[in-house]
């Protein structure tokens, strides 16, 4: 990528489809504008800003930790800082992520199917998974895959 090429930043989107089943799809953020964060700092590529109230926290999943099937408590970005973790959606898709990979969890409103509702997640490997979580304060009635693209 050259200095003037608009970036494309991949992320996974865990969402609820029309039938109430959670699914994951690979998306790309592509709407960036090159400008200074605060002049006189040099310009950098900045994505769209979202002005929803948010809660930010860091979680640490111990080695071998696995959560049971559940929905995300709120729409939320999950950014691994160290270690690896996984998310398995109701459609059977399992995605493993580590530092530098991003997931947006938005599987609220799923229906139970075969003892599964929402998603299952856990730690991969022998290290704890340290995750930064940025939760939105508002929920959407209907989720759209790749809505940040």
Automatic annotation (TrEMBL):
Residues 95-127 are annotated as: Disordered. Gene3D superfamilies: Jelly Rolls. This is Cupin domain-containing protein.
């Amino acid at each position: 990528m050259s200095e003037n090429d608009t970036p494309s930043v991949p992320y996974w989107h865990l969402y609820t489809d029309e039938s109430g089943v959670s699914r994951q799809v690979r998306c790309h953020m592509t709407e960036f504008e090159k400008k200074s964060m605060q002049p006189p700092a040099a310009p950098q590529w900045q994505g769209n800003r979202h002005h929803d109230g948010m809660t930010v926290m860091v979680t640490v999943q111990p080695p071998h930790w696995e959560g049971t099937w559940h929905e995300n408590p709120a729409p939320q970005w999950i950014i691994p800082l160290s270690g690896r973790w996984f998310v398995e959606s109701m459609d059977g898709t399992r995605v493993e992520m580590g530092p530098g990979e991003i997931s947006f969890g938005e599987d609220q409103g799923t229906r139970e199917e075969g003892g599964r509702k929402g998603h299952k997640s856990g730690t991969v490997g022998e290290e704890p998974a340290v995750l930064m979580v940025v939760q939105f304060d508002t929920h959407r009635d209907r989720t759209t895959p790749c809505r940040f693209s």
